[in-house]
Write a structure and sequence with these properties.
This protein has one domain: 5 Propeller (Tachylectin-2, Chain A). Strands 14, 15, 16, 17 and 18 form a 5-stranded antiparallel beta sheet that branches. It has a 4-stranded antiparallel beta sheet with strand order 3-4-5-6, with no helix packed on it. Strands 10-11-12-13 form a 4-stranded antiparallel beta sheet, with no helix packed on it. The protein has no helices and 22 strands. Helices cover 0% and strands 45% of the residues. The N terminus is likely disordered.
């Protein structure tokens, strides 16, 4: 999740990106998309994360309208409803209505939830009031809808010298060991540092970090421009795949479509080393049908299948910004010779 107040960096990549993994310059004919991934939730729901719980799908997203952590639910993935406050149905439900003491309100991003024997842990990005940096915190709840609370006096992780820390994502390996993945906020204009995705072991309760962080991926490819972020680690058949988003998240008036996209790396283990896929980006903007700025993916399993959720910018029928925020899409994720493949949702 990129900071809304930050300066845009467009000198790094002037090309719009095609779904097939190549780039098209502004003078080229727009590519034709072979598939369409229409939104399943047409509301501003950035940085989605989906938890499967007791036959339901629960989605969490970045703050909106005074709500720190918004939520939506579904029973069959194709249609979703925003959860409302039970006491005041005119307001959205807030999974974390009370922020920890170290947090400045209004900048709570990219929530992800881990199930533990004691309940649920919510990892979130928030503005550290003392330093002004975006940092990662953790809150707990007995129920997945919250309320999640935290008495921690400070962030779980905040890489002060590297611009701060955002986009925490938990992962449980097949041996039960927990890991946390996160990105240093080096593209903060006050720091102007490279961005990297780090991994670090978590304690069994998911509330403290163990050992030292390891760098897995950094913004060293042209399509990534100034930033890599939003990590998602998964293990399938003994192989490890790290999905991530890259490039400027926004859809500016000077752009035909947003340059934001999704790539992946193959890793030898939860702590790497990792190698970028040669055909990145894995998913990127297309002009027809309009898919602008797909990013901040999450992967989940249900009924023995893999699914892939992400956000993209709301668009008009002529592929211009609809200015309604970022909508959530959910698609099927399959594997061919160890490589990920996406396809539209099948009727269920």
């Amino acid at each position: 999740m990129a900071d809304m107040g930050r300066v845009s960096f467009f000198g790094f990549l002037a090309a719009a990106l095609s779904l097939g993994g190549g780039c098209v310059t502004s003078g080229d004919k727009p590519p034709q998309a072979s598939v369409s991934y229409p939104p399943v939730l047409r509301a501003d729901f950035p940085d989605p994360f989906i938890l499967v719980h007791e036959g339901q799908y629960l989605a969490y997203a970045t703050n909106t309208g005074g709500v720190n952590v918004q939520m939506a639910s579904s029973t069959e993935l194709a249609s979703w409803r925003l959860l409302k406050d039970e006491r005041d149905p005119s307001r959205l439900h807030d999974a974390m209505p009370v922020l920890p003491s170290w947090v400045k309100p209004g900048f709570t991003w990219a929530p992800e939830v881990l199930r533990t024997p004691d309940g649920f842990v919510l990892y979130f990005t928030a503005r550290h009031a003392a330093s002004g940096l975006q940092c990662v915190g953790a809150a707990t709840s007995r129920e997945p809808r919250g309320p999640f609370t935290s008495e921690a006096p400070g962030p779980l992780v905040c890489q002060d010298a590297l611009g701060g820390t955002i986009d925490a994502s938990p992962f449980r390996a097949s041996d039960g060991q927990l890991y946390l993945y996160f990105k240093n906020d080096g593209n903060n204009p006050a720091f102007n540092k490279p961005t990297e995705i780090f991994a670090q072991r978590l304690s069994p309760d998911g509330l403290s970090l163990v050992g030292e962080p390891v760098s897995l991926v950094r913004n060293d490819k042209p399509w990534e421009a100034h930033v890599v972020e939003a990590p998602t680690m998964i293990e399938r058949g003994g192989s490890y795949v790290l999905f991530f988003s890259a490039n400027h998240y926004g859809w500016e008036s000077t752009q035909r479509v947003s340059n934001y996209g999704i790539g992946y790396a193959t890793c030898e283990g939860p702590l790497g080393p990792c190698t970028d896929a040669p055909d990145n980006p894995f998913l990127a903007s297309t002009f027809q049908p309009c898919l602008s700025g797909p990013g901040h993916q999450t992967v989940f399993q249900a009924e023995g299948r893999d699914f892939f959720a992400f956000h993209s910018w709301s668009a008009t029928s002529t592929c211009s910004p609809a200015k309604l925020g970022r909508f959530m899409s959910v698609v099927q994720l399959t594997w061919q010779d160890g490589a990920p493949q996406l396809s539209p949702l099948e009727p269920r």
